[in-house]
Structure of GABA(C) receptor:
Amino acid sequence: DFTMTLYLRHYWKDERLSFRSNKNKSMTFDGRLIKKIWVPDVFFVHSKRSFIHDTTVENIMLRVYPDGNVLFSLRITVSAMCFMDFSRFPLDTQNCSLELESYAYNEDDLMLYWKHGNKSLSTDEHISLSQFFIEEFSASSGLAFYSSTGWYNRLFINFALRRHIFFFVLQSYFPAMLMVMLSWVSFWIDRRAVPARVSLGITTVLTMSTIMTGVSASMPQVSYIKAVDVYLWISFLFVFLSVIEYAAVNYLTTIEERKQLKKRGKASGMYSMDAVQAMAFDGCYHDADEDMDLSPFPEPCEENETRASQTNISNADTPRLKRKRSLKGNVGRIILQNNHVIDTYSRIIFPSVYIVFNFFYWGLYI
């Protein structure tokens, strides 16, 4: 629906109200005379609620001219129904109309028409709405048929409203884009860093769910799909697929490790693992130059670091410092060597498909 405040001015001629006067060009009265003369019974067809302003008195004016011409003016606020289509929301343009019609008199008794055609409508040049641009404002007329009473003249006030999109870009589209791009960061993280990649994936999924919930709470409740729904659900799908992508990478990595362990065999009930495999189990980085034998229940990183800090060793010659130096130069090499082929393709496919989707989406709806 929409709400409009307007001055509704009626013009007609009633010779019974004519008078002779050499001094007065017209006579003006207030609403008390309305009940004693004939006035058109115009009503708003799809009105939900309307009222005549009455502060400080009823905003009604009646002006009578010597020849019997009458001007009847009211200040009214109307809330009326508009048949809106939100399939392109928030990139939509709505065409609404306010319809006026006589309630009792059909076209044989009363004819309604715009006195000056389209120029009969005038608006404030500086009028502005918080959510819409007013693209068009025009007047038209037609006929309405009722089976029991006949044909009636009907007047239309037509206007086209185009919705402001900048608010929705800041509140919906831009955060969704950032969440999708943030989910791609996991493709550049080592596939064995399970906590980092899982936490990032779950965080982006939950954030997208929050964005979708907040947007749907402020949108019109309709039973069909809107344009913003398409964008948010596709963005959510990209974020969800990034989590599924890591699930596939982790599963295939586990299968590869099992095959390697079967080939190496077991030695004294203990596995011989390289540095990156050890990091996957205890969460600590180990130098790739040393083969580490890990018991089935490895000690946590904090205990290792506490034990090392309590040892009285000089800072210049400790093996730990050597490993730290080698870590700085070999992190990039280790990540690239342990990169899965699925991650490599995902770095290219996910951004490319998302860019193509945005291109078609904005080209279709704008």
